[in-house]
């Protein structure tokens, strides 16, 4: 199956429109010219990726229809392309949420002058936070094991929660 030209054009225009709206939003809240690129790019991605899911979900649903009539499917892409788009969106959002944005926030807020000291401070602060989250997860796992016994469904429910 090949991608229809209309589907490709719609997705491209929609992604450009989303990017433009995100840039206008950033321009409203940040001085873009004086903000360093190492701040602008992650913030842009942190806004652009979740908003692009609004476009990706209907394309995924239309692409998974089992009809062969292209006119009734609307905007669609091959299954492999949709899978890659979901994976890129998920893993970039995951990395931004748990690692990049917290490190960047602490880096910017640190009182040190040199980039090396600021980065070390940021790593220590976030390492402490990640250690606390891990310890709480282990405590939750122990609690679930004590309450429900060692069952796979209990662990799955805890991880999903």
Which structural class is indicated by helix and strand composition? Answer: mainly alpha
Strand segment count: 0
Rounded mean pLDDT score = 88
Largest sheet: none
How large, in whole angstroms, is the Cα Rg? 21 Å
Low-confidence runs? none
Distance between the termini: 38 Å
Sketch the topology as an H/E string, one letter per element.
HHHHHH
> Strand content of the residues, in percent?
under 5%
General form = flat
Q: What is the count of helical runs?
A: 6
Helix content: over 70%
Helix and strand topology:
Layout: H1 5-29, H2 37-63, H3 70-73, H4 79-109, H5 115-148, H6 152-160
Helix pairs in contact: 1-2, 2-4, 4-5
Describe the protein.
The structure is a single chain. The chain has 161 residues and is mainly alpha-helical. It contains six helices and no strands. The protein has helices at residues 5-29, 37-63, 70-73, 79-109, 115-148, 152-160.
Which terms would index this structure?
single chain, 161 residues, mainly alpha, 6 helices, flat
Short description:
81% of the residues lie in helices and 0% in strands. The chain is built from six helices and no strands.
């Amino acid at each position: 199956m090949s991608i229809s030209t209309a589907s490709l054009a719609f997705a491209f225009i929609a992604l450009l429109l989303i990017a433009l709206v995100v840039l206008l939003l950033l321009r409203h809240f940040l001085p873009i010219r004086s903000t360093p690129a190492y701040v602008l790019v992650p913030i842009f991605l942190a806004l652009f990726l979740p908003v692009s899911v609004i476009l990706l979900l209907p394309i995924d649903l239309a692409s998974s229809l089992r009809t062969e009539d292209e006119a009734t499917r609307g905007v669609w892409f091959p299954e492999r392309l949709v899978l890659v788009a979901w994976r890129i969106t998920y893993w970039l959002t995951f990395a931004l949420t748990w690692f990049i944005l917290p490190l960047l926030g602490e880096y910017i807020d640190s009182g040190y002058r040199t980039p090396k000291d600021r980065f070390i401070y940021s790593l220590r602060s976030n390492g402490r936070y990640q250690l606390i989250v891990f310890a709480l997860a282990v405590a939750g796992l122990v609690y679930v094991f004590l309450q429900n016994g060692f069952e796979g469904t209990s662990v799955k429910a805890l991880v999903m929660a």
